[in-house]
Each structure stands twice: as C-alpha cells, then as structure tokens.
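Changelog entry: the Prevent-host-death family protein record was regenerated in this release. Current contents:
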Amino acid sequence: MDTPTVPFSDLSKHSKEVAETVSRAHRVHIRRRDGEDLYLTTARHDREREETASVVAHLLSALVMSEEGVRAVEHALPAVFSWTRHLSTEEQGEFVRDLVDATKDAAELDVHATLHRVIAEWRATARILADPALTAHLTRSLPDEDHGEVLAP
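Regenerated structure tokens:
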C-alpha cells in the first residue's frame, strides 16, 4: 500500500482529514519545505513495526547460532543482496555477523543507522571487488616509506 503524502501546512488546516487518513493508511508521509520530511503514524502501527523488526532480528540471530543456520543465511544472501556474490566466503560470513549485530541493535536499541551503515559499507566493498582494475589499484603494495603519524580527522 502506498503511503499517502500531505504538505506540512495541511496538518492544521485539515487535521480531521489527516487523522482519518492515518487511521485508514496507518501512516502518512508529511512533506516539508523547510526541513526533513516526517511520517505520522498510529502508536499501534509503530508497535507492530517494532515487533516485526524484533522478530526478524531474533530469528536471524537464532539462525546463525548453528553452522547449518549460517549456511542457510549465506545461501540466501544473493537473493537479498545480489552484490554479495563479489565477496569471498570469509567476507560473506563477516557480513552476516555484522548484519545480525546491526539488526539486533535496530530492534533492541532503536538504532537503525548502524544497519544502514553496515549494508552501505559492505555494498561499497563489493563494488570495489566487482571492478578488477579498482581492486588492483586499491590493493597494490605501498612504498616502504614512512610518512609519519596520521592525525585523526
């Protein structure tokens, strides 16, 4: 179901209609001109989304507790993340561990940025590995020269 979108200015002018739309659609996309867009949702819908995330996180966590489960998750990776085919078996295992940890953080700590970061970083790694010239350039030996301490950004 598509999420209905309304301008922020309509919230106060048409609050009854917006509330009815939220009740019917469970969430409404609020478009803002002067800031990040918002979503207006019902508490019940938000609780259900949290429960869904929690179930998925715990299911994934339970699966990777056994070798068979790890193999099942690794086997499913290309169907969910097609770019994982460029990762080695060891890298796929590391990605699964990072994915499980980040999924648990999202469900248990309400920290979703970590999951997004893990996926973005591993996708970037796969993008590099998919390009042999770029991989060769980034993995070439560096000169033995010591250029001194690298300062933290």
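The chain has a mean pLDDT of 86.
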